[in-house]
Amino acid sequence: MQYIRRANERGTVDLGWLQSQHSFSFGHYYDAAHMGLSVLRVINDDIVQPGRGFDTHGHQDMEIISYVVSGAVEHKDNQGNKTRIPAGDVQRMSAGTGIMHSEYNPSENEEVNFLQIWVLPEKKGLPPSYEQKTIEQQTQLTALVTPTGDAGSLSINQNMSMHRLVLGANETFTLQSQLGFGYLHIVKGQLSVDKDSFVKGDAFATSAKEAIKLIANSDLEAIWFDLPSQV
C-alpha cells in the first residue's frame, strides 16, 4: 500500500442539515497531502437530514457518481431528468458543457447517506448526460461503472472503473489494479491487510502490479476504483 486515508482524519463539514466527511480537498477543506488520486478527485461521505438537500447548482466538465448507502436521494436537473435514487442504486452524471441540478432527501423522517464521487473527464466539452441503474451483485467484485458500460454497468467518460466489493465475515479477496492505481474505500464493515486493520470510512491505495490480499473481519461492503497511472 502506498497511501492510507483514515476515516477519522478526513475533512469534516457540519451545516446542521448536512454532515459530510471529505476524503480529498473539497470546498473550504484543503489539505495539500490529500488532493485526490489519478483522475479521482472527490469522495464526499454525506449525511443529509430529512426534507433537506442541495439547492439547484451547476457543474461543468466533471463525471459525478452518486452511490446511495442508505435512504434515497431525489435528483432533478435542467436536462429533464427527475428521479429517485434508492439505496444500492448508482447514478452517473456527466456535466460536460454544463448542467444544473439539485439533490434532496425526500424522506420526512429518515436521513440519507450517500457517497458523492467526482472523476475528471477524459474529454471536455461533451453534451451533458445521465444514467442510473440498480446493479445486482453478481460476484464478490461487481462492476458498477466502466468506460464502455460493460456487463450492465454504467458508462463513464474516462479510462477508469468502479466496482462494489461484497464479502462475508472471514472471506478473503485479492485486489490488483489493471490500469495503474487502485483505491479501496470501505462503506460498511471492517477488514485486515497483513497487520493493518481498516474500518468504515477508511481507504487505501495500491500501486501498479501490487496484489493486496484482504480478509473481511465482518460482513463487508467497499468500493474499488481502478485508475490510470497518468492523468
TrEMBL record:
SUPFAM superfamilies: RmlC-like cupins. Pfam families: Pirin, Pirin_C_2. Residues 144-227 form the Quercetin 2,3-dioxygenase C-terminal cupin domain. Residues 9-119 form the Pirin N-terminal domain. InterPro entries: Pirin, Pirin_N_dom, Quercetinase_C, RmlC-like_jellyroll, RmlC_Cupin_sf. PANTHER family: QUERCETIN 2,3-DIOXYGENASE. Belongs to the pirin family. This is Pirin family protein. It comes from Glaciecola petra. The lineage of its organism: Bacteria, Pseudomonadati, Pseudomonadota, Gammaproteobacteria, Alteromonadales.
